[in-house]
Design a protein that fits this description.
heterodimer, A: mainly beta, 6-stranded mixed β-sheet, 5-stranded antiparallel β-sheet, 11 strands, about 55% strand, globular, B: mainly beta, 7-stranded mixed β-sheet
């Protein structure tokens, strides 16, 4: 079965630095790879989506890369702020196979002032 | 816009009781899904539906039933609750089939089974 690994349970980054989160998967490449943000007690909120034929996507201070050879996506937050502290979830959209969207366990990011 | 609405927000059940978690969306989305979230386990897919009348199993379907009689509603049924089903449940929907594949999530239902 498809497995997703996000690099660490928690990550502490100094304010102003770039935070880099990793998402690795096994087996099949997804049609899309998505990143979500989740705050305590709330549902996840969509941030960015990258397709299997795209290498990089940007949105404001966010950047996502996707390497299907390495089976890896990197999620970057530049000029990080304490308000960026949250849990970030990687999701594989397998719509080209069975329509499942499956999530990694998430990485808790703490931006230290 | 209401988006994805889940009810109830909190529920306590005794082992063996049954209940239905409600999920409704007003965005005319074809795709709907249910996840459970446990500490350290991330979001795990329970069941999903690509349209009215069509449902399929996710990663952890045992102990749960779903139906999709309308585009708007996707209820999740627990027939005989067990303590292992204590969790936070999220419903999500997506337009699918277009260029915008993202999931819209409800605010969750916190379920405790004693």
């Amino acid at each position: 079965s498809q497995k997703i690994e996000q690099n660490s349970e928690a990550l502490n980054i100094q304010e102003g630095k770039t935070a880099t989160l990793t998402c690795n998967y096994t087996n099949y490449s997804p049609a899309y790879l998505q990143w979500y943000r989740q705050d305590p007690g709330r549902g996840p909120v969509f941030l960015l989506l990258i397709r299997e034929n795209e290498k990089e996507k940007r949105k404001e201070r966010l950047k996502v890369t996707f390497d299907t050879t390495l089976k890896q996506s990197l999620f970057h937050i530049t000029a990080s702020q304490p308000a960026d502290s949250a849990t970030y979830l990687c999701a594989l959209d397998m719509s080209h196979r069975d329509d499942k969207i499956i999530f990694g366990k998430g990485t808790r990011l703490h931006i230290l002032p | 816009n209401a988006g994805v609405t889940q009810t109830p927000k909190f529920q306590v059940l005794k082992t063996g009781q049954s209940m239905t978690l409600q999920c409704a969306q007003d965005m005319n989305h074809e795709y709907m899904s249910w996840y459970r979230q446990d500490p350290g386990m991330g979001l795990r897919l329970i069941h999903y539906s690509v349209g009215a009348g069509i449902t399929d199993q996710g990663e952890v379907p045992n102990g749960y039933n779903v139906s999709r009689s309308t585009t708007e509603d996707f209820p999740l049924r627990l027939l005989s609750a067990a303590p292992s089903q204590t969790s936070v449940y999220f419903c999500a929907s997506s337009p699918r089939g277009g260029t915008n594949e993202k999931l819209f999530f409800g605010s969750g239902t916190q379920l405790s089974v004693l």
